[in-house]
Amino acid sequence: MAKNLMSAIAGLSEAKPDADKAKSKAKKPKVVNLGKGGSFTIKHPGGLHAATHTPAGEKISQSKIEAASHSRDAHVRRMAASAKGLEAMHHGGKK
Asked: pTM for the full model?
């Protein structure tokens, strides 16, 4: 049994992470073009969903965005401000 355990431990050091899996899990930054107003990049898509404990794919409620805009964390406040601005632009949503 010790021989099998030692060979298993030796095999762990040789194991390499799958590069394709690592690339697929990382979310890509999203560039938002504001026309004449310039553009900016959303570096961590889904960050506000995580901060407000909202499942991915669901819309964040106005009350949660308002609460996030008064957060102690400055990064969460900035994400909430961006969400308010992006919502006002009606990006491809219902008219």
From this structure: 0.56
Cα(63)–Cα(53) distance, integer angstroms? 13
Contacts of 56 (CB under 8 A, 6+ apart): 46, 49
The yes-or-no verdict on residue 5 having pLDDT over 90 is no
Helix (H, G, I), strand (E, B) or coil at 12: helix
- The CA distance from 5 to 58, in Å, is 46
| CA torsion angle 71 76 78 81 (round to 10) | -70
Q: Hey, is 55 helix, strand or coil? A: coil
- As beta bridge partners, residue 40 has 32
Only one residue has tokens 């394709």, namely: 20
